[in-house]
Amino acid sequence: MTAPPKPRSGGLRFVIVAIILIALIVIAIIGYAVVGYAAGESRVTEANKTLNSVTSDQNKFTTTFNSMSTKFSSLSTGGSFDAQQAKTLTDQFVADAQDSSKTVDKDQAALAAAATKLDDSSWLTVMDKGNIDKAHARINHALKALAAAKVVSDDYVQDGQFLQAFMDTIIDLDKLSTQASSNDLAGAKTTVATLKTHVDTATQRSTAPGLPPEFHALMVDFQTMASDFAKLLDAAIASDDAGVNTYADKVTADATKLGSYDFTKMGNAIDAFYKPYIDTFNTEMAAATA
Fold first, then answer.
1. 110-124, 136-150, 233-247, 260-274 — which is least confidently predicted?
2. Is the pLDDT of residue 227 over 80?
3. Which of 70, 145, 172, 260 gives 195 a disulfide partner, CB atoms 3.0 to 4.6 angstroms apart?
4. Residue 72 covered by a domain
5. Domain total for the chain?
6. Residue 69 located in a structural domain
7. Whole-prediction pTM value?
């Protein structure tokens, strides 16, 4: 009878080491999952904070522009129109649009940074990939909304600059009416020179994005009227009765032509131009915050 085989010390040591290694790997996997999930949730939380900040920014400007629209509408209530008040509102509109455009740039950069941070050490956050993917989707929706907002804001600046020059022309016309009533021909001549400058500026800006072509045609006709009015004043100052009769008829015809423009239709065209951008903004922001 032979003696039973003795366990080899080297084999036992191998088993013990293997068990220890397996235990360490299990611990590492558990630790990886816990740390990875925590890291992923931290990134998602930061992304959500950025989204909340962006949403707050855009809600503020939406409220601002809605309020501005209400104020503009109230200017013509009762058939009256205060050109100077309209100019003040237009100046504020341009300033708000410029602020909105800058804020969109800032928000786009913040969202891009948040999206990049979501993917930092992606090997560590695999356990939280589902939530990270959802955060990415929300950021992508927000970026699409901001792309539309950027177009609207930048275009609003240009449209507002046209309105600034246009309101200047209306203010000039009001001043001319007062001067004509008091027979202040010298003062009217100075005002007409200013009017022509404002009309030229408005004409240059009348092709801004969102403005239908009728606005440019309107300003070209306005240039003609300003020129004819200047000639009428020169004739009056020179006591040129024939010239006065000729240019008075032309100014009357010019005014009639300007009055033929359908501003309601032109306003509807502007609304139609911006509607797809505004709809996209609203839809994508709703998806981003869902």
1. 110-124
2. yes
3. 172
4. no
5. 1
6. no
7. 0.77
